[in-house]
Amino acid sequence: MHSGCGKGNAMTANVKQIVLAGGPASGKSSVIKRLRQRPTEGDVHVLFLDEMATTFLHDRPSEIAAADDPLLLQFYILRAQLFAENALLQNTKYDGQTILISDRGVMDAFVYLNEAELELLKGEHPERFRDRYDHIVYLKGNIDNYLKDNETLRLEKDARTVIETEEKAYRIWSECKSFSCIEQQECIEQKVDLVIEDIHAFLGRRVFTEL
Fold first, then answer.
1. CB 23 within 8 A of CB 47
2. Long-range pairs for 9-12 at CB < 8 Å and ≥24 separation?
3. Cβ-count burial of 62 within 10 angstroms (0-12 exposed, 13-18 middle, 19+ buried)?
4. Where are the alpha helices (DSSP H) in the chain?
5. CA atoms of 144 and 111, how far apart (whole Å)
6. For residue range 13-38, what is the model confidence (pLDDT) as tens digits?
7. Which tens digits make up the pLDDT trace of 150-180?
8. Can you give the pLDDT at residue 154?
């Protein structure tokens, strides 16, 4: 199995890939939803990619659902993520700066696999993808939020698994070349504001304007 970790033909200095990473119930999807509603500066094109794992769990082929094979599931999620990112960026026609903000990224597939399963991927390993993304904004989660708002399609089914997933996700993503962490906030709007500040600081310019 070999997916390719390059940035694709469309990836240039004018294109930046930013991932909103984090453990379960950390607010990634809620932040993305609110960022979509924010107006942007006129000289920048902002693309958004929703969480591929949720989409795949909704739409996965019956043979994958029936197999209940975590290795097969995460490999297909990884491939779907790569395809979606590359397709978005290769099809953009904008000449100015383009920014792709993704809800999770390909390295999340490795969070749900153990070392033995990683060996079976034959070359697919987190190290191969560390330079794929330009910047990671990691959102810290809250176990209380998870227990209160649990979704049927989540892979984590208990508090212990949530904590272990959070720790492993942080460890994997924090090894990327550009990484920042945003702690849990009292409300999602505060987290959105901090994400915007972080993105602006990384890019050295404003992207989102005031509502």
1. no
2. 9/90, 10/86, 10/89, 10/90, 10/91, 10/92, 11/89
3. exposed
4. 28-36, 52-59, 62-67, 70-90, 108-111, 115-120, 143-148, 159-173, 188-203
5. 21
6. 689 999 999 988 889 999 999 999 99
7. 554 455 567 777 788 889 999 999 999 999 9
8. 53
Residue type, 10: A
- CB-hemisphere CA count at 13 Å for 178? 17
Q: H/E element holding 98? A: strand 97-103
Tokens of 164: 């272990």
Bridge partners of 47, per DSSP, are 100
Nearest to 129 by CA among 52, 24, 17, 46: 17
The Cα 24–Cα 77 span in angstroms is: 17
Stretch 77-92: mean pLDDT, rounded?
88
Tokens matching residue 149: 């708002």
